[in-house]
Specification:
The chain is α+β, with helices and mostly antiparallel strands. Helices cover 35% and strands 20% of the residues. The protein has helices at residues 11-24, 30-33, 39-51, 69-77, 80-90, 97-104, 107-119, 141-152, 158-166, 199-204, 231-245, 260-263, 304-316, 331-334, 344-354, 403-416, 459-464, 481-488, 503-508; strands spanning 28-29, 55-67, 123-125, 131-133, 170-182, 249-250, 257-259, 337-339, 367-376, 388-399, 423-429, 432-442, 447-457, 471-479. A hairpin with a 4-residue loop joins strand 12 and strand 13 (447-457). It binds phenylalanine. It is found in: Cytoplasm. Pfam families: PheRS_DBD3, tRNA-synt_2d.
């Protein structure tokens, strides 16, 4: 029912009222019988009765015409043209525009009314420029039409209805009402309904006369609060599949705390590098320092002291053909504990171990590693930055790799994520040379977006580990959040990760297919 009105009757009362009204006459039109009940209340009451087969009903929709304020005025005082005519009829001498306006008291009525009255030939102009009435009697059809609409909420002639609407005198609205009939189980009161057949009912014979509530096969099931995978987990799983199908091995990333040695020094990041500032990195105050780098399994027989010395030498004095940074390298700085700022710390550890492997030719084996895990940066939190996020990282070690090979590999890898036509931009990382930022055209956003960072690891880093000179290593990294936000159309990272995440969003998020639109 529109316009909606408030009813005081509860749905219980309304249902009983409907039954009482139906008993007197049927079919019943709800808009006549219950003009003030809302559509929702009526439908609820009717559905209740219909489910018990006490009533049957159809929904009917019809159009209702309502008067605009101007038309209300016309219904009460006559049309503009009629009012102009009436004023002139009373003034035998005729009236000037000004006098007419004074007589009617509404400039607008005069303006529109005199034009129409002329057309109808009800009035004319005298020689001295005054208006005068010429007809004896007029028929105010506009007022009549409007009065019809006012009384019947419609007009038998659709053309007139359309014309009044075009003149903005009336507006129409759709009205829903119900046509109600008695059902096979019609009664004046809603019977008590049994929901279960009990032993007592059988013993007493009450089941014979009891009314049973019918099954409602259309009822929706209750929502189940089962667990749901977070969108980041879904995208992570898709990415893991891409890596696995390309022959990658997953790196063990199960530690958030690293020493500066693995997070920075092993990667040839100088100790004065801004990334090592307190503003960029979270340092751990307790315990004060990390253990000296050491093997974490008995089969790791590498000489960690030699590695440490190499790292020191390559930073401080230069080695392997590099002139180094030439600053006094501090072992204490290297043993400070940090929340890892990138998973490249793990890659360094893995590559160091790789240097000890021996293929058929006695040289380290080619390898493909990846990881997807959390990293931490001391950033100001905003819509696209959090102090923690997930890094997706890949590393390929092999002999004779070239930068062109890295670019081609990126095309294939990101192509599997549905990102094509990559663009590469020279960039800088302390641990790679050359380095490239990777961009892809984002159709939804209509622009190039940065999707990752990559490069070929530096000789200073690789040779310190004992990897042979002709073994080259590609590395690249991207955030897990970026593709997830793009895929799920999220603009604020805080909706994706952290305490503001809406559980309904997590539960309602569909599965992700990275390669598809
Ligand atoms: N560690 C880089 C980052 O934080 C990603 C990267 C990994 C770049 C490996 C090059 C090589 O963005």
């Amino acid at each position: 029912m529109a316009p909606p009105t408030n009813t005081t009757a509860s749905s219980e009362d309304l249902a009983t009222d409907i039954l009482a009204a139906l008993d007197k006459s049927q079919p019943l039109l709800s808009s006549d019988a219950f003009p003030s009940a809302t559509f929702v209340d009526l439908k609820a009451a009717l559905d209740r009765l219909a489910s018990r087969e006490m009533v049957k009903y159809d929904t009917i929709e019809r159009q209702e015409a309502l008067l605009e304020p101007e038309a209300e005025q016309i219904a009460a005082n006559g049309s503009h043209e009629a009012r102009v005519f009436e004023a002139l009829r009373k003034a035998v001498e005729g009236l000037s525009v000004k006098e007419l306006e004074e007589a009617i008291g509404d400039k607008n009525v005069v303006k529109i009314g005199q034009g129409k009255a002329f057309k109808e030939k009800w009035i004319s102009k005298t020689k001295d420029g005054k208006f005068t009435a010429v007809a004896d009697k007029i028929n105010d059809t506009t007022q009549e039409q409007i009065k019809t609409v006012q009384q019947t909420k419609t007009h038998p002639d659709p053309k007139i209805l359309a014309d009044l609407k075009k003149r903005k005198l009336i507006r129409t609205q759709n009205i829903f009402s119900f046509k109600i009939h008695k059902g096979p189980k019609f009664a004046l009161r809603i019977p008590e309904e049994a929901t279960d057949l009990t032993a007592d009912m059988i013993a007493s014979g009450a089941w014979k006369t009891a009314t049973f509530k019918p099954y409602n096969f259309k009822a929706l099931g209750a929502t189940q609060n089962g667990g749901a995978l977070h969108p980041l987990n879904k995208v992570r799983q898709e990415l893991r599949n891409i890596f696995f199908e390309m022959g990658f091995e997953e790196m063990p990333t199960d530690k958030f705390v690293e020493s500066g040695f693995w997070n920075f020094d092993a990667l040839f990041v100088p100790q004065q590098h801004p990334a090592r500032d307190l503003q960029d990195t979270f340092y751990i105050s307790d315990p004060k320092a990390a253990d000296f780098p050491r093997a974490d399994s008995p089969d790791d027989t590498k000489d960690y002291q030699a590695y440490w010395d190499n790292v020191k030498a390559v930073h401080q004095d230069g080695k392997y053909g590099s002139i180094g940074y030439r600053y006094p390298w501090s072992g204490d700085e290297s043993l400070r504990l940090v929340l890892r700022t990138h998973t490249t710390a793990i890659s360094a550890n893995m590559l160091h171990k790789l240097a000890a492997t021996k293929g058929p030719d006695g040289r380290p084996l080619p390898a493909r590693y990846f990881s997807i895990d959390r990293v931490f940066r001391n950033e100001t939190v905003d819509a696209t930055h959090l102090a923690e996020f997930h890094q997706v990282e890949g590393v390929i070690a092999d002999y004779g790799l070239t930068l062109g090979g890295l670019m081609e590999f990126m095309e294939i890898f990101f192509g599997k994520m549905g990102l094509h036509d990559l663009q590469f931009k020279p960039a800088y990382n302390p641990y790679t040379e050359p380095s490239m930022e990777i961009f892809a055209y984002h159709k939804g956003l209509g622009k190039l977006v940065e999707i990752g960072n990559s490069g070929m690891f530096r000789a200073e880093m690789l040779e310190s580990m004992g990897l042979p000179k002709d073994m080259r290593v590609f590395g690249w990294g991207l955030s897990l959040e970026r593709p997830t936000m793009i895929k799920y159309g999220i603009s604020n990272i805080r909706e994706l990760l952290g305490h503001k995440v809406d559980l309904e969003f997590v539960q309602g998020s569909p599965a992700v297919l990275l390669g598809q639109e």
